[in-house]
Design a protein that fits this description.
475 residues, mainly alpha, Growth Hormone, Chain: A
Length: 475
């Protein structure tokens, strides 16, 4: 079963808009609130709690959406209709999120409704999109190449959003977040339409019986390889999201408000990611997946150690900082790519042990743990920001941004930087530990788990395909 060029490129390129949207909301929502809304610590804490609970609910909602997809078959396909519906609703909600600005507790109430709705609609799109991947090809090499191409465009989307947003919003954040919310929503919608109309799904044999919560639980517990990948994804998500989530505050407090260093940092994110993805096809010719995973983890850990020692053991040097970022992002990208492939291969393992593929159920595990990991990341981030005192300083900058939006001030950079200079060494050290030490430990934990418990090697996967063909041949 060979994937057509049209389907291959429509599917892979379609990921660009999705990841721009994901980065906007996952990486910048809290920054948008922290640096543009005048909220009390109690209101900010409640908003953070809402974000945590919303992500936990999203995690619970993911397998439920997987059940809905497994039990639904439209004439236009099993997965594409949900990609389209999720994209349409999510784009509209994102525009509301960054456009409407009630104040005080009214904003907290508004945010809770909109943020939970955003997560549910993105889940609809996300699970259907990733569940479509194993449907497009069962060939090992084709699946590797397709996954690599998808991650390339996903990384490009992350790079564009992560690199441009900090530069664009600083100094006029309220207006620019509104424009960015509209712009990225339209981009996301355009790429969603590309995937919907450009991809041809392969026929799917409906399950013999409806998938229920009980059956879903039975599938996931019987397929112990999915359980392994579930925990590995959780740890990897906490690691990657914490490093990125702390970045904006780290660069503001280390280099000043609106400095170019955050943009340069994002450039090295792109370079590290592109290097990982471009070398993967070559590495896969000479190394198995676990060996490539080992390489990615090792490079990332060295990068984290370098990041943690800059300014304490080593001199505070920007070149060393960007070198550490390059290594960390290289390692994270290589690791993520392998994790996606290893998770996809549990589909065939599930087909052998249960007789059914259940793509949507199994691939709901990835966003399930991604969002649960994001909830943990949100808790750690909020705790650090409040206990260290960083939130109090950022609120003073939020007042400046509000005055800028009202036309009271024209240039706020000098006043913002004078506020940031008041940060103590203790605050900066706590920020560094949250950004570097915890992610490094989580990444190591995910590697140890996969190394010890994951059994679907390249040889084992080929055996699974032979077993499936034999069963199909015997009727």
């Amino acid at each position: 079963m060979e994937i057509s060029k049209k389907s291959k490129w429509s599917y892979a390129v379609g990921c660009l808009g999705r990841d721009m949207m994901f980065i906007l909301v996952s990486m910048f929502t809290l920054a948008y609130i922290q640096y543009t809304m005048q909220l009390t610590i109690a209101q900010f804490t409640v908003i953070s709690a809402i974000m945590i609970l919303a992500r936990v609910w999203d995690a619970v909602n993911d397998p439920m959406m997987g059940i809905i997809i497994e039990n639904t078959h439209f004439k236009s396909g099993k997965f594409r209709p949900f990609i389209l519906m999720g994209g349409l609703f999510n784009a509209a909600i994102t525009i509301l999120l960054f456009s409407l600005r009630p104040s005080g507790w009214l904003f907290v109430f508004f945010f809770g409704i909109v943020y939970i709705s955003w997560g549910m609609t993105f889940t609809m799109n996300d699970i259907a999109y990733w569940s479509l991947l194993p449907n497009l090809s069962k060939n090992n090499e084709d699946r590797n190449n397709l996954t690599n191409l998808v991650v390339v465009f996903a990384s490009l989307g992350q790079f564009l959003a992560g690199g441009l947003i900090p530069v664009i919003v600083t100094g006029n954040a309220i207006l620019m977040y509104r424009l960015i919310g509209v712009g990225i929503s339209l981009i996301f919608l355009g790429f969603t339409l590309l995937t919907y109309f450009g991809v041809t799904e392969n026929p799917v044999i409906p399950n013999r019986e409806k998938v229920t919560l009980v059956k879903m639980f039975r599938i996931l517990t019987r397929n112990h390889q999915v359980v392994v990948m579930t925990i590995a994804i959780l740890l990897h998500t906490i690691a990657s999201e914490l490093f990125v989530a702390f970045a904006l505050n780290f660069f503001y407090f280390e280099f000043g408000y609106g400095g170019v260093q955050l943009t340069i940092f994002t450039v090295f994110f792109g370079l590290g990611t592109i290097t990982a993805l471009s070398t993967f096809p070559l590495l896969s010719k000479y190394m198995n997946r676990i060996s490539i995973l080992t390489l990615g983890i090792a490079v990332a850990v060295i990068g984290y150690i370098l990041f943690l020692t800059i300014g304490y053991v080593l001199p505070f040097n920007e070149v060393l900082l960007y070198m550490a970022a390059f290594m960390i992002f290289f390692g994270h990208s290589m690791t993520f790519l392998i994790i996606v492939i290893l998770t996809a291969n549990t589909i065939e393992y599930n087909q052998v042990i249960t007789g059914e593929r259940n793509e949507a159920i199994i691939f709901s595990v990835r966003p399930f743990m991604t969002k649960l990991g994001a909830a943990v990341q949100q808790f750690i981030l909020t705790l650090v920001l409040i206990l260290s005192g960083i939130y109090t300083y950022s609120q003073k900058i939020a007042v400046l941004e509000i005055d800028k939006a009202k036309g009271i001030l024209t240039d706020i950079a000098e006043e913002a930087n004078s506020i940031l200079l008041l940060a103590t060494p203790k605050m900066l050290f706590i920020l560094r530990l949250g950004m570097g030490l915890i992610p490094m430990l989580c990444l190591i934990g995910s590697y140890v788990l996969i190394k010890r418990k994951y059994i679907i090697t390249e040889e084992k996967y080929d055996e699974l395909l032979m077993m499936i063909e034999k069963k199909v041949g015997n009727g």
